[in-house]
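Section 5.1 Outputs to date
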Amino acid sequence: MSFSSMSVAQFLDALASAEPTPGGGSASALAGAMGTALLVMVAGLPKTRTNTDDARAALDSTRAELVPLRVTLEACADRDAAAFDAVMAAYRLPKASDEDKADRKAAIARAMRGATEAPLETLRLAVKALDLAETVARHGNPSASSDAGVAIGLLHAACEGAAANVRVNLGSWSEEEFRTRAATETQALASRAADVVTRVRASLAG
């Protein structure tokens, strides 16, 4: 069953269980999806901050970009869990012979790459949603500023959670080129997210 098709209670029970998935990566992705959904709601409200045609057009354009982002972030929750399950399966492969060991090592490497790329994609998408949140904060109905603020908090949590998962997986990664590239991108995206959050929160408070 897809996590996005579960009830809230079912997903929380799954998180609380002793099973390795869903874990922090899936929770980060769904936090991002929830934050994005809130931005979709605020952007779609009939009244804007200024009630001008320009504000309405900006919000409509932003909403059109946010809607598919929410769907993709939901899918990232399942992708993250599947990637970690693949890592667990790879570690369970036989290692009786040298050939077994070589095959197992290669399978672990492939699975670890997938488990690193999954939260990295969540991070990219959550940062993109945060970028779009600036328009929502600038033009959205002030009466929904608290909803926009919650959206920002959820998206920032998604970014921090996804970045943490990338960094943990990179700790056991041996391919230097991929490790360096992923670490650099993760740091840049995490810093960008923090900067956007600061600007958007200031805009909401203004």
